[in-house]
Design brief:
Helices cover 49% and strands 20% of the residues. By secondary structure, it is an alpha+beta fold.
Length: 445
């Protein structure tokens, strides 16, 4: 059996009582806290027993100090004298344990205990969470506004959907933590004046749910972009970023063990952080160039489903082609256009193919695409869509744009899983419509 266990622990930053209860339960199961980091806590195997824990906060402690301050040493000696031993610490937070049945509490003044916790919070979470709240609010509102304005385009983009949802979740997380803390603190101040410390109750379950959701959403994002260079790119970027964090942390701890002064340590770490970030971006750029040269992004620049040459038989090798291909777990959308070089004389073709990956999204996608096309031409009097023969397209429904009753070469065609919006620079024949239908229906296989 392993003598060491590492667990990812997620608590509200102010949930002192919740962390103490958790550590007591772990000790009762035979695991005593040994080390702490931002997310991972390390436990060592012990005989299961009832152990009391107490968490204290010292806002004056610096993460770059090579040794405990004199004040901190005096406090630790006081705790040892009272039967409390230091289990682990994480910068300003120190965790003590006591094996006595009814130990003397470390903290006896609720007002002082509350203020120590608040000073700790001001140097940590209360510096970063408001900034996270503001950024996530701005980005989240932008994302929601984009969804309202053009839902199909943004729901079909894995990166837009992924980052947008993350910002919304980050807003919920930071808001719940800040509101939870300040509401608790308001009640706690009143009870502290009466000589009682109000027990903390954080949002551990919500934090866990958010963490699991973010991990799963990232995995779904990687799956949605498929086995392409972009997938490798994102994995490499995340791995490189984690490596940079570990390198910076390792350098800081090494300098602390070498008794380097806090100011010097901080300066060296800042320089290494900048250099590591520079190397990360450089590595990412080099990889991108390599991926393009070796066709790792080939899927993104693949040939169009059909071209002017396919439909008309003319030589369109001199035509410019553009393609914007987006995919998410909900929808996929390919936008393409083709026109002569330098916009000279010749035929033009533009179309968009939208794939519905989740059946429940079909009606919603139809309504939004149809509504978007109508809105696009709504400023022009006499413009409307009229239903036309869908059989020539091999489709379920087809609509053609008309201008004061005169048909235009613009169509909206519906298939079982796909929607086609096409603008042709010439009058499409029934044969050409059939060819397009065959191409669309072949995408299902």
């Amino acid at each position: 059996m392993k003598d060491v266990k590492r667990r990812m622990e997620v608590f509200s930053f102010w949930d002192k009582a919740g962390m103490e209860r958790h550590l007591e339960k772990m000790a009762a199961d035979g695991w005593l806290l040994d080390k702490m980091s931002a997310l991972f806590w390390t436990y060592r195997k012990i005989e299961p027993k009832k152990i009391r824990f107490s968490i204290s906060y010292y806002a004056s402690i610096s993460d770059f100090e090579p040794e405990p301050t004199e004040e901190q040493q005096e406090f630790n000696e006081f705790c040892v004298h009272s039967g409390w031993k230091l289990a682990a610490s994480s910068v300003q937070m120190q965790v003590f344990y006591n094996e006595n049945e009814d130990p003397v509490p470390i903290e006896t003044d609720p007002v002082l205990e509350l203020e120590n916790l608040h000073r700790y919070a001001k140097k940590t979470a209360l510096k970063t969470y408001p900034l996270l709240l503001l950024i996530s609010l701005l980005m989240g509102v932008t994302f929601i506004g984009s969804i309202i304005r053009d839902p199909v385009y943004y729901l079909a983009s894995a990166i837009n959907l992924f980052t947008g949802v993350w910002f919304v979740v980050a807003f919920i997380y930071s808001l719940s933590e800040l509101l939870g803390y300040y509401l608790w603190r308001r009640r706690a101040k009143g009870m502290a004046e009466q000589g009682e410390f109000l027990e903390t109750r954080g949002h551990g379950w919500l934090n866990w749910a958010i963490l699991v959701f973010m991990i799963l959403s990232f995995a779904l994002y990687l799956m949605s972009i498929g086995n392409t260079g972009f997938q490798v790119y994102m994995i490499a970027f995340v791995v490189n970023m984690i490596a940079v964090i570990f390198i910076v942390q390792a350098v800081k701890e090494f300098l602390k063990r070498r008794k380097v002064k806090a100011g010097t340590n901080k300066t060296i770490v800042a320089v290494i952080s900048f250099a590591a970030a520079f190397v990360l971006m450089g590595t990412t750029n080099v990889f991108t160039i390599y991926a393009i040269k070796t066709d790792m992004f080939l899927d993104q620049f693949a040939e169009l489903p059909f071209t002017i040459g396919d439909l008309t038989g003319i030589d369109d090798s001199g035509y410019l082609k553009s393609k914007d291909d987006n995919d998410s777990i909900l929808l996929g959308q390919l936008d393409s256009s083709q026109h002569p070089m330098d916009n000279g004389e010749g035929l033009r073709l533009g179309y968009s193919i939208t794939e519905v990956k989740m059946p429940f999204m079909y009606d919603f996608t139809f309504e939004k695409l149809y509504e978007h096309r109508i809105t696009k031409y709504s400023h022009e009097a006499g413009i409307r869509y009229e239903e036309s023969d869908a059989s020539v397209w091999g489709a379920t429904k087809a609509y053609r744009l008309t201008n004061n009753g005169e048909p235009e070469n613009t169509y909206f065609v519906c298939y079982d899983r796909y929607f086609l919006q096409i603008d042709a620079g010439w009058e499409l024949t029934a044969k050409q419509m059939g060819m397009i239908g065959e191409k669309i229906n072949s995408l299902v296989q």
